[in-house]
Amino acid sequence: MFALVLGLSWLVLTPLCVWMLFGRDRGGTARVIAALTLVGLQTGTVLIGIAEEHQEHGQATHIAARATPSPSAPPTPSPRARPCATRALSPSSVRLSRRETGLDGMTVYWAASPDECGTASVALHPDGRRLQIWLREGAAHHKGARILPVKVAGGLASLELRLSPPLRPRSQYVAVDARTGHRIPERRGA
Q1: Mind listing the pLDDT tens digit for each residue in 147-184?
Q2: Where is this region: Disordered (predicted)?
Q3: Helix, coil or strand: residue 130
Q4: Which sign, positive or negative, has the C-alpha torsion 92, 87, 156, 120?
Q5: For 6-49, what is each residue's pLDDT tens digit?
Q6: Distance between CA atoms of 36 and 168, rounded to whole angstroms?
Q7: Residue 77 burial class via C-beta count within 10 angstroms: exposed 0-12, middle 13-18, buried 19 and up
Q8: Strand-pair category, 174-177 with 130-137
């Protein structure tokens, strides 16, 4: 709401301040007031930008910091001695683990490649009922991403992401690939 008021203030006050600064027969007091008004508008704009950036970064980092690797999936070392190549992964499906207390974990699936890396980085950012997921093979790329072990079975690679504490209970969470904005289909059953 404050951003809307600030935007409208820019639209209304900027022409008035420019007229007061550069108009004929204006005294020094009017010019100082106009300059201070423009400085105040610019300061407010910068502060809102910093606050929004900090809020978005804080939410993604907070959720990623709460994510813990599954105890049933020990880290699998890569059979290769050299480090894995970093590449963006496209999730094909996701299985959400729901309890009475809320969403406490998920398993993310994607098509496995012949030289699949033993780890992948994942970051989760809940936005209302949307769960935005960033997934990359190899080293972490997104701020707040966690590196988790990858399991490969039947041509599908997967990783398990546990959330502690769980996200609040909602009937319909929708997983979304944060890179593309496309919905990730939910896999049902065991």
Answers
A1: 888 899 888 899 998 887 777 776 678 888 888 889 99
A2: 58-85
A3: strand
A4: negative
A5: 889 999 999 999 999 998 887 889 999 999 999 999 999 998 88
A6: 46
A7: exposed
A8: parallel
- List of residues 6+ apart from 105 with CB closer than 8 A: 70, 96, 97, 160, 161, 162, 163
CA angle 11, 19, 24 (to 5 degrees): 175
Q: Which helix (H) or strand (E) holds 55?
A: helix 28-66
Q: Is the pTM of this model over 0.85?
A: no
In the chain, where are the structural domains located?
2-65, 70-177
Q: Residue 164 CB: number of other CB atoms within 10 A?
A: 9
Query: In whole angstroms, what is the distance from residue 118 CA to residue 152 CA?
Result: 9
Sign of CA dihedral 138, 139, 141, 145: positive
d(CA 185, CA 84): 27
Do residues 20 and 33 touch, judged by C-beta distance below 8 A?
yes
**CA atoms of 59 and 53, how far apart (whole Å):** 10
Residue 138 to residue 145: CA distance in whole angstroms:
11
Pairing of strands 174-177, 93-99: unpaired
**Separation CA 190–CA 95 (nearest Å):** 9
User: Which H/E stretch holds residue 16?
Assistant: helix 2-22
